[in-house]
Design goal:
By secondary structure, the protein is of the alpha+beta class. It has 10 helices and 16 strands.
Length: 362
C-alpha cells in the first residue's frame, strides 16, 4: 500500500513557452463545468452545482461552491473550444476582448481540420459549441481573483458572438469575451498555458485531470491526496449516483491513460496505478499522483503566428480550371500576350483567371 507524501516544489520551474498551447483559467480547472454524461450535460436549462476544496492564502482548507447555468446545455467537449479560443485570442499581438477570426483558421490552429472529412460538420460542431458557451452564466462564492490575489464572490458570462448565417461565407466570426472573464484570463495568460496537442488527444475525463495536474506539477512533485468521490464527481464530473468502487474503477482508467503519456509516474515500490489508491477508513479512499517525466521534457507552448496566417481571411485556393498568374511590379499582369494593370497592392501575389460562359471573356 502506498504512503501519502507531502508535495514539495521541484528544482525546475515552468518552462518557456512555444507554439501550440492552450490557455486555461486557474479556478475553472478545480471543478467540472458540466457532467461527463453528455445526455445529462446537454439538457437545455441545466444548472450544474459543484463543491470543491481549496487552500486559502493562510493555508487553511476551505470549501467553495460553483454554479454553472447552461440555458442551452454544455458539452464536456466544449471546453476544448473554450480554452483553444482563449489561447488564440491572447496569442494576438495586442489581445482585446473582441476577437475576429474565420472558422477555418480557428479549427486549423486548434488541429481540428481533417482533410479526409467533410468540413461542414466541423463548422457546425464549432458553431453549436459557441452557442452553448455563450449562454453560460458562472457563479462562484470563493473564486480566486488573480488581479487582487484573493478569493471573491463572482458572477460572469464567458463570451458573446456574431456569426454569418452561411458556413461558406468568407467573413470572419466575431467573438466578444465577457469583460470580467477576459481580465481574469489576461492576468494568468503568461502563467497557465498547457500542451494543447496533448490535451486534444485525451478523453474528456483525462483532459480535466491533465489540466488540474498541469496547474500543480509545475510547482510540486506530487499532487495532494485527493478524496475519490470529491475528485471523481466534483472535479472530473462523474455521476454522483455512482458507487465509490465504480468511481475508483473510472479513476484507475484515467490514471492509466495519464501514466501511458508519462504525465504521472509510479513510485519504485508500486507496479500499477491501483497502488496509488489508499483506503483511509470505511468508504473513504484517496489517491495521490507523482509527477511524470512528461513535465521534465515538455515546454509549455504559446501559440505564435506568421504574417501569412491572418485569422481574418480564408486560405486562397485555386481551382484546377483556373489559370494562375503572378502579378508583377507596379501591379502588371501579362495574359495571352496582353498587359493588364491591377492595383499595386497585388504586386507579388498570385491571381486566378477563370473562363466565363462567354467565349473569350475571363
Amino acid at each position: 500500500m502506498s504512503s501519502i507524501v507531502t508535495p514539495h516544489r521541484p528544482a525546475n520551474k515552468r518552462s518557456p513557452t512555444r507554439k501550440g498551447s492552450g490557455l486555461a483559467q486557474q479556478t475553472l480547472v478545480e471543478h467540472a463545468l458540466c457532467p461527463l454524461d453528455a445526455t445529462q450535460a446537454l439538457q437545455a436549462g441545466s444548472l450544474h452545482q459543484v463543491r470543491y476544496n481549496f487552500t486559502d492564502r493562510h493555508r487553511n482548507r476551505k470549501t467553495a461552491t460553483a454554479n454553472v447555468a447552461c440555458p442551452f446545455g454544455l458539452s464536456p467537449n466544449d471546453e476544448l473550444y473554450l480554452y483553444g479560443l482563449l489561447a488564440l485570442t491572447f496569442a494576438q499581438p495586442e489581445p482585446t476582448s473582441d476577437f475576429y477570426a474565420t472558422p477555418h483558421w480557428c479549427l486549423k490552429q486548434l488541429g481540428l481540420v481533417d482533410a479526409g472529412q467533410e468540413q461542414g460538420s466541423r463548422y457546425q460542431l464549432f458553431r453549436d459549441a459557441i452557442r452553448r458557451l455563450a449562454g453560460v452564466v458562472y457563479e462562484n462564492d470563493h473564486f480566486y481573483d488573480p488581479l487582487r490575489g484573493e478569493q471573491r464572490q463572482v458572477a460572469f458570462g464567458l463570451l458573446k458572438y456574431s456569426l454569418p448565417l452561411d458556413d461558406t461565407s468568407s467573413r470572419a466570426w466575431h467573438f466578444v469575451w465577457d469583460a470580467q472573464w477576459f481580465r481574469f484570463c489576461e492576468a494568468v495568460a503568461g502563467s497557465f498555458s498547457f500542451d494543447f496537442a496533448m490535451y486534444r488527444q485525451l478523453d474528456v475525463a483525462s483532459r480535466r485531470m491533465f489540466l488540474l495536474l498541469s496547474k500543480m506539477f509545475w510547482r510540486n512533485d506530487h499532487s495532494p491526496a485527493f478524496e475519490l468521490r470529491q475528485l471523481g464527481v466534483n472535479t472530473l464530473g462523474f455521476a454522483e449516483s455512482l458507487a465509490t468502487k465504480e468511481i475508483k474503477q473510472k479513476l484507475v482508467r484515467v490514471a492509466q491513460t495519464l501514466l501511458d503519456q508519462e504525465i504521472i509516474s509510479l513510485p519504485s515500490d508500486i507496479t500499477s496505478v491501483r497502488g496509488l489508491f489508499t483506503k483511509r477508513s470505511k468508504g473513504v479512499h484517496v489517491v495521490q499522483f507523482p509527477r511524470g517525466v512528461y513535465f521534465e521534457r515538455v515546454t509549455q507552448p504559446q501559440v505564435t503566428f506568421t504574417a501569412d496566417e491572418s485569422p481574418l481571411v480564408e486560405p486562397l485556393e485555386f481551382s484546377p480550371i483556373d489559370v494562375v498568374r503572378k502579378v508583377q511590379k507596379r501591379g502588371e499582369l501579362w495574359f495571352r500576350g496582353q498587359r493588364w494593370f491591377l492595383s499595386n497592392a497585388f504586386t507579388g501575389e498570385s491571381v486566378g483567371l477563370r473562363a466565363t460562359t462567354v467565349d473569350g471573356v475571363w
